[in-house]
Amino acid sequence: MSTTRHLVNRRRRLATVAATAPSERTPATGAPAPAEDRAAVTEAPAEPGTEPDHEPGTAEAGEAGEPPASTRLPTRLPRLRFRLPAALCAATVLLGAFAAWAFTSAASLREDPTRQNTALTDISRTSEVKGQITEAVGAVFSYTYASPGKSDQAARKYLTGKAVQQHQDMLAEVRAQAPKQKLVLTTTVTESGVELLDGDRARLLVFADQSNTRTGKEEETTYAAAMFAVDAVRSEGTWRIAAIDTFTR
After folding, report:
1. Which DSSP string corresponds to 141-198?
2. Would you say residue 59 has pLDDT above 90?
3. Which range marks the domain in which residue 138 is found?
4. For residue 33, what pLDDT is reported?
């Protein structure tokens, strides 16, 4: 009896297990598969003869920090070829040209009279040359028939260079007529300006009034204005007239 009962009970348990086993092994449609099954599907080995799309760990690395493939720089950049000797030669030529230009510019600045003119900056020297040349012009361009030697003395004191001959030519007619007409020529400087002052050289523009008086039987005086330029040089502390420019050709 007991054996028969055990057999019956065993068959019932087996039948119950057989009825419930398919529902446990196959989930209902739309129900999520167990975690173990999803892991098994994800980690299923690839079929023979095929390679996996990604190596283990590469997908996670790409998502974590690597830029997209379209923005990545090429692994091999084109090699830049610099021709160093040619570049050095070009630089040498450019530097040489710049040095030549700088030297020429500096020389032109040194030779430019306006760069050397100190007429407006050296007030003391400008005042000195104006005073002495004003005195010299009044002395050498004044003449009296009674004392012709005084004019010659003034010429020796205040004139130098080609101004000596220029002065003789300018007063030649006065000297010739002075004894007969008893001429007295007086020159007074009314204004003067220093155009150029460069060390011991200067150029001045002179404005003067001249009066020519005949003291013979019929006394007569004529007046005239004069404008001319003089080149002056300084020697032994004295400014002397070196050239006279009357602006006539």
Report:
1. T-EETT-HHHHHHHHHHHB-TTHHHHHHHHTHHHHHHHHHHTEEEEEEEEEEEEEEEE
2. no
3. 123-245
4. 47
